[in-house]
TrEMBL record:
<feature type="active site" description="Proton acceptor">
    <location>
        <position position="243"/>
    </location>
</feature>
<keyword id="KW-0949">S-adenosyl-L-methionine</keyword>
<dbReference type="InterPro" id="IPR012967">
    <property type="entry name" value="COMT_dimerisation"/>
</dbReference>
<keyword id="KW-0489">Methyltransferase</keyword>
<dbReference type="InterPro" id="IPR001077">
    <property type="entry name" value="COMT_C"/>
</dbReference>
<dbReference type="InterPro" id="IPR036388">
    <property type="entry name" value="WH-like_DNA-bd_sf"/>
</dbReference>
<dbReference type="GO" id="GO:0008171">
    <property type="term" value="F:O-methyltransferase activity"/>
</dbReference>
<keyword id="KW-0808">Transferase</keyword>
<dbReference type="InterPro" id="IPR016461">
    <property type="entry name" value="COMT-like"/>
</dbReference>
<dbReference type="GO" id="GO:0032259">
    <property type="term" value="P:methylation"/>
</dbReference>
<dbReference type="GO" id="GO:0046983">
    <property type="term" value="F:protein dimerization activity"/>
</dbReference>
<dbReference type="InterPro" id="IPR036390">
    <property type="entry name" value="WH_DNA-bd_sf"/>
</dbReference>
<dbReference type="Pfam" id="PF08100">
    <property type="entry name" value="Dimerisation"/>
</dbReference>
<protein>
    <submittedName>
        <fullName>Methyltransferase</fullName>
    </submittedName>
</protein>
<feature type="domain" description="O-methyltransferase C-terminal">
    <location>
        <begin position="110"/>
        <end position="313"/>
    </location>
</feature>
<dbReference type="Pfam" id="PF00891">
    <property type="entry name" value="Methyltransf_2"/>
</dbReference>
<dbReference type="InterPro" id="IPR029063">
    <property type="entry name" value="SAM-dependent_MTases_sf"/>
</dbReference>
Amino acid sequence: MTAQPADAVWDAIYGISRFAALATMAELGFADHLKDGPLSSDQLAERCAAHPQSVRRVLRELASMGFVRSVPEGYEVTEAGLTLTDDSPRSVRSAIRLVREEAYWYAMAKLPETVKSGASAFTERYGPGYHYLAAHPETATVFDDYMARRAVPFAGGLEAACDFTGVRQVVDLGGGRGQILSAVLGAHPQVSGVLFDLDRVIPSGREAMAAAGLADRCEFVVGDFFEGVTAGADVYILANVIHNWSDEDSIRILSNIRSAMAADGRILIVEIVLPDDDSPHVGKDADMRMLALLNGGTERTRTEYQTLLEKSGLTLSEIVELPGWASAIVATPI
């Protein structure tokens, strides 16, 4: 069939239907039920306590997307579908579950209103994102798992791409469960770490670092990087932090680190760096989420990061590409 001008519009519209099928698979645990072998749609519905005919229709859509496939016994999960199991090291189930949250859908649906007013409709209705998570612990658990899973592709990449020779202490600001810090400490026995985050996050970070056998080399600090950070470290890591904040707030965070860091210290800012042209880029999709969910949060280009750093008393030394769309923006004192 000849391509039509509106084809891209229809693909975006029907993409919502495909996402809804994936959200059903993730929320009802289809992949976990299918990972040990094929099931008929009726058997799967029984295990999920779901309506059999509705399950059959969703499976038909998922099969067309490549997450399950038809076999004589019913349906089996594919390699792509296994990424929606809880126990897979490549699991992205929490990402799907987070996006299907009612408040998230509200924010995306209200993007036109956000663009008109310049203020996030989500924030207007629910308050700041981290306040929302504090008030909704079940969502916070999904969010924390999503952030941990999201860090996996670039945690090892950061350790491999950046030189930690001679580094004595690394502070991971907003480090969550410490995936990145664990990779650094695991590869460099001479390094001690500080995991710096909110009080609701630190317990899970402490547990994860203990499971990795690294708790004895890590200090756990509850803090607010708007007020100040651990002083005197050689390296400060900010992963998926700066894009959450306006330029003014970002400069405040970076200036606090600049005041606290060693004279020859570095900041490693792990973020998506947008291209300056109109080429497609996953960061532009992410930027729509930033716009919808946060007042002031934004993905940025190299030039925009360079400006932020200069206003914070820092200089952009280099940008190192990492796996998983992210880059390490290396900043040093001016």
